[in-house]
Amino acid sequence: MANRSRSNQSHGTSTKVKKGKKTRKSGSIILKILTALVGLVLIGVLGGIGVFAYYAKDAEPITEKSLDSTASSKFYDINGNLFEDIGSENREKATSEEIPQRLDDAIVSVEDQRFYKHHGIDPIRIAGSLIHNITNSDSGGLQGGSTLTQQLVKLSVFSTKASDQTLKRKAQEAWLATRLEKEKSKQEILTYYINKVYMGNGLYGMKTASETYYGKNLSDLSIAEAALLAGLPQAPNSYEPYEHAEAAKKRRDTVLYTMLENDKITQSEYDEAVATDIQAGLQPLNTGDNTTRKIVDNYLTEVINQIEEETDKDVYTDGLEVHTNLNMDQQTYIYNLANNTDGTIAYPDDDFQVAATMVDVNTGNVTAQIGGRNIADDVYLGFNQAVSTDRDLGSTVKPITDYGPAFEYLQYSTGATITDAKYNYPGTKTAVNNWDNSYMGTITLRQALYDSRNVPAVKLFEKVGADKSAEFLNGLGIQYKDILASNAISSNTETQEGTKYGISTEKMAAAYAAFSNGGTYYKPSYIDHIEYLDGTTQSFSSAGQKAMEESTAYMVTDVLKDVITKGSGTYASIYNVTQAGKTGTSNYSTEELAKIPHYSTISPDVSFTGYTTNYALSVWTGYSNRMTPITTASENIAQLFYRNMMQYVSQDQAPADWTKPSNVSRVGGELYINGSTASNSVDGTSYNNYYNNSTSSYNNYYDNSSSSSSAAQDYNNYSSSSVTGNETVPSSSVNNGNTNNDGTGSSTPPVDGGGDDPTGGDAGTTP
């Protein structure tokens, strides 16, 4: 009463009445808001139930067959012949009685700790995953809300890829999971899961993996072994213990920790299991006698990679019908050629390696590929050198890095002159040397390329400009993170980022294919089309993109024909087959040469890339251990490999010659772009001026470099000279990688070098 009295005295009766109306009005608004929110929630819930019911009604019933079988993916060659069926074999099914409790515990602990408490879907798990993913959105490691039952449904009915996890699919998956829980016991569901999951290396089911990896029955697995198997299904190719031991251990230990946390193992058992070597007890993989699989292994690897990159599908779980661009006749021949089944090529030893890619020049389709030779029988989907950018393709880069851009952007003729003389990398005191440590004076761009001279190549690169050269390369599917002057004569790059930067045989074959077809670049493709389980089809054909003018493609091709007929690539010559190509050789640094006993020219990499009007083929040769050198006895194997393979594919489809574009004229054997105003001299020196200059005449070059004016005497003197490696080349302009890619030299002369010797390749200093 006193409070009320004070209130009256302070504010008066009228004030009190107004305040009461305001309070009632505010309360009414809050009530309306709460009512609206509740209504919206109810509408949302009812709407969600309606959507769920709408989607769920269309779910196909899950069958015993779908639960029990694996969704195999089939791979067909270009003629429609099946050459691989992933998932149809390599599976031993376990019965419930064969599955030990520790394997059940491992799977449930890491995949679905509330497995025995929910009825197919787990709202608590979903809510926990949602909160975790919101609070950890920036740190990765997102959690899924699917139960083991839902995972089994996905493996049996739907795609497992994230892009296919639509609202419709999730609703159907949840509906089928609840239905399955009513029809099957928990133990039956777990058994189906154990028998169905993909375990890496072409194996399905944990019993198969246990027998293959450990040579054991499931009941004999240790805690550490059971944990490894339980962790594999999440990412079987990434966690398999043979090639990815570190990742496998991390995943296994995660499983062990969840078992400890879930009170399924003791602390001492956990400590012992974590301390176990991840590869302890592993048996040698035995894929059986499958010759076809070995023949197509590298190609199949790239097919799977393309599927993962471009479709977000999973060949191990999604049941795809993949129609590839593989020509099985070509693939068989290239495999046999690499593995010397008929003695066609005299390889120096079993460790000598070959990698090669064949591309259809008019489509970009990869028709055959080999990524190595004498590969062990237990390797499945192994390393593929053909797509790796970790080795140097040497002077095969000159047409795409120097001469192509010069013809394209500066419109030089093939007869334009350039001086092959002493020259330093721009902005440095580091000399650019040729393979023979001598110079030819003023020569045409045609001769500079077919004789594979380094100085003219670097000069052209500087004239074109690094940015324009990079632009030209990008149009051909090739990138360097930082293109350097040394890349004028080398593909070596310190930064690769997988295969993003640098050049592989795959990239080089596709780039040269653009020269063949008149200037159109097609991205290399291993797949023609894929048929999915839902009946839809996806095509992978490429329309291509213009990479250069037709005149550029023709002019480069015309010069590269000379490489084979009279330049550094005569070993690649094929009777009655019109073709063009380029040799490439990398070098060791001076320090590396000092560590390798040798008595003649040695190189870490020798390559050849060539093409006809039908196919482009790029070949790399060398040793896996880069410090094992290619000697003069085997330096022409790249060309011989190319010749045999190209001859084989040309026997039933004879290539034609190229047709000169109308805007190109041939004068005196050289090609000129009609209307071009470009100077006929790259560096301002003509033939006449050069030979009239007594200080820089052709003879004086040889007089200054040896005691005799004859090229032969200079060649002999060179064999006893010491040539500086690239250890002093500044990183600002020249790559300081392990390979002596700046053309500064080997300590001995090349035997098969370019120059005026028409019988050989271009071994030595990156010709």
Question: Quick summary of this structure?
Answer:
With 767 residues, the protein is of the alpha+beta class.
Report on this structure.
With 767 residues, this protein is of the alpha+beta class. It has 25 helices and 16 strands. Strands 2-1-3-9-10 form a 5-stranded mixed β-sheet, covered by helices on one side. Helix 11 packs antiparallel against helix 12. The N terminus and C terminus are likely disordered.
Rg over CA atoms, rounded to whole Å, is 34 Å
Task: Give the fraction of residues assigned to helices.
Answer: 40-55%
Strand segment count: 16
Identify low-pLDDT runs. Answer: 1-19, 139-143, 160-164, 687-767
Strand content: 5-15%
What general form does the structure show? elongated
Strand order of the largest sheet: 2-1-3-9-10
